[in-house]
Amino acid sequence: MFKYGNNISQLAQDIIKNYCSNFNVAVDATLGNGHDTDFLSSIFHKVYSFDIQDCVVENYKNRGLNNVMTIKSSHEYIHKYVKENVDCVMYNLGYLPGGDKSITTKASSTLDSIISSLKLLNCGGIITLCIYWGHQEGKEEKESILNFVEKLSKKEFSVIMHSYLNRSNDPPILLVIEKK
């Protein structure tokens, strides 16, 4: 097993832990199985966690973490629920592993969410996007996101892409956006 190149979700967490400037408020834009929310809740004072699936939100609520607010809504509505600046936003895009593969994140709602997240992000804050694009909706989402982030102001944001070059079958991509 590789230490660095094994898992992009773990890499995203390592980047946040080591490079985020503050650890007050974070957002998990895609709750899913809860791994990122667990991570964020262990180092941030407050975490907002979004998902559109009832069972996902209810299962996570049962963990009873006092610093996590689970929200049954699409991440595209982050601006309606999060009224304070944030230090970090994490995305795992695609579908829930082991879940219904017909329920996926979508390019338009993800872009709306990213735009809102960039406005909420504090200086020194980080957004990570793990893009799983091995399906049609994922391919469209990946292209939309890449087209958008490459146009972000280089004076205000740093955008770095981690991608596997020696893997087949549409390997995941990690984008990291840091606000100056």
Compact description:
This protein is an alpha/beta fold. The chain is built from six helices and seven strands; from the N terminus they run αβαβαβαβαβαββ.
How would you characterize this protein structure?
There is one protein chain. The protein has a single domain, classed as 3-Layer(aba) Sandwich (Rossmann fold). The longest helix has 14 residues, at 107-120. It contains six helices and seven strands. β4, α5 and β5 (121-131) form a beta-alpha-beta unit. It has helices at residues 8-19, 35-43, 54-61, 78-81, 107-120, 136-149; strands at 25-28, 46-51, 68-72, 86-93, 121-131, 157-163, 173-179. 38% of the residues are buried. The chain is of the alpha/beta class and 180 residues long.
